[in-house]
Amino acid sequence: MEKSPLPGNGEEEEGALGVGQLAVQLLGDRSNGVEMEAGDLVHSRPAWGSKLQYMLAQVGFSVGLGNVWRFPYLCHQNGGGAFLLLYVLLLALVGVPLFFLELAAGQSIRQGSIGVWAHVSPRLAGIGYASCMVCFFVALYYNVIIGWSLFYLGSSFQYPLPWEECPTLTANTTVRECALSSPTSYFWYRRALDISPSITQSGSFNPMMTGCLLAAWTIVCLAMIKGIKSSGKVMYFSSLFPYVVLLCFLIRGLMLEGAFEGIAYMFYPRLHIWADVQVWRQAATQVFFALGLGFGSIIAYSSYNPPTNNCHRDAVVVATINLMTSLLATLVVFAVLGFRAHSITSHCVSQNVEVLLQLSHSSQLPTQWLPQFNLSDPESVSVGQYSAWFNQLGAALNGTVTPCNTEDEMQKGVEGTGLAFIAFTEAMVMFPASPFWSVLFFLMLLNLGLSTMFGTMQGILTPLTDCFRTLDRRRTLLTVCSCVLGFLFGLLFVQNSGNYYVSMFDDYSATLPLIIVVIFEAVSVSWLYGTDRFMDDIERMMKWRPPLVYKYLWKFVCPLAMVGLLLASLLRMCFKHPTYKAWDREQVKEVELQYPDWALAILVSLIILASLPIPIGFFRQLLIERWDRGQEVSNGGVGDGDPMTFRQPHDPEAYRKCSTEPSDLSGPDPSLLPLEEEEEEEEGAGGRSMVSDNGFLPFVGSGEGRGEEQYRLLPQEEEEEENSTGV
Q1: Which fold has domain 45-340+416-574+603-611?
Q2: CB 404: neighbour CB atoms within 10 A?
Q3: 201-210, pLDDT tens digit by residue?
Q4: What is the pTM of this model?
């Protein structure tokens, strides 16, 4: 079998495309602890403190704010139980296979996203850089949402809650904007955001939100400053606490009047929505973002695992927990929204009954139109009684009284910030001991946001420190500088028009680039590297071969599904002018506005900037390869004709476990050790060979070094005559 040549001294330079050059197989490289520069020592890669810590990190990253305020809205708007069935189908056919693919790649190569795809082929290193770029864009606005949660959390330590009543100008007058909307809407748009009428009117910086943004970045920086050693410990609280809060809200919500009506409305299946292409697009997009595919964070987290870890089981468990969390959040949201809708409808009935009572006293209501219920006690009239009377006789009163229907209130679906900071806060005002529930809710949002933010930052820092050893040696400084840079760029989102930029980044900066990234990931492994070869490598790593169905899912179903999602998203952008929702202070309601031309230019630039590293990395490596071939020809050699230079299968005897003791680096090639000499040393010491029977070398160690020993490439006899490596 043909083997790749060993690198010569100085052949690998510090840079993105130099990652994995010592390796000769996708799942065979264990040398990612080796310094890129000649003469450096082999060092150990950090490892998770426990399997629980790792699982909490993966769950914390995948379970985020979208599970609470996006998934329930999509179910509500797209057929309830029918959308749920569609979501589960796409999760099984597309989500879990792609999640497993990223876990296996990161765990085996033990590099971040840049190193993994550069290892498959140096021309694919741009995929990792694109993931880093998207992570940076997402981190910018995601931490702003965490800042909003901090602001509401601080405001919750008051009784009554500041959004419970409208502020008054004089003894008998309230602020018009609040009186015509609601106290919660007024607090959100005016007190919290002080929002401008449109994106074209940027206004000034919001000092309170600027301080909250600074606090959010400070928390992230302190949690990430020691890498997984510090962020992993934080996960014990940030990943588990939201489940405690959700269970508390579910128990409390089920005790509220109207809760079961909300849940029944939520899960009532409307199967006709399956014929709508956009519903499939929304379900696929939710699966895509719920698992965090393409960010590089999954790869980064799994790269700190030992190679024998069962990553397939991890993929199924994390995906299942994610689904169960979405269902739990949906139950909570619709139980609370059902109570809110019932309360609003009951208040509507009381107001209309009082109007009927006045009409009855003034003899303006004919006797035959009088309802059968007691007009003198509006609180005793049920929604069903009033609705039955109104449907029969109420319409004849020409708008004197209005319809009151719980289902109509439930149909006013809200998502995102509108659900968390308006609808849910309005419902919590009606709870007994409302400040307590408000503190719990916003503390939950804070932890959901932080656990996802930790994974997003890991998707940036891990690839960079793996590829650039200078950054690895200064990881603390890199973390601090990244957070400072994120805060400075984040100031865009704390001006009066900042909420509109959050919507822009959320809708466009990540969706299309991440879809493109995952398409390249799936095609690279399934078509360029080869699914059979990839499954062979997984079998060698885990001593377990994935079911054959994964071969066809990776090769056909996943790429086709992602291409279809990309086309559907592009068509939607092309045929529907991008819009955003703005708060109109005069009309006292949300209005839908089109982005101006300059905002469209920013929008398109975000998509291009995030996707650009892929072609740049490809053509950069192409030029390097042509230059190298030209140099070889000019020196009398023969250029390499391999068009993609994929890593070839290796001979397991080419690898031996590196010594954990500092080695003598004197000699012609300090990074390599003759095979025969090491074998003699092992045999003389009465030790056994470190090569496993199937050619895969497990990491063995104890104490702090457990699971952290590295491997380095050793020369093979047949290559000593073919390559002038100096070994």
Answers
A1: Amino acid/polyamine transporter I (1.20.1740)
A2: 23
A3: 988 899 999 9
A4: 0.79
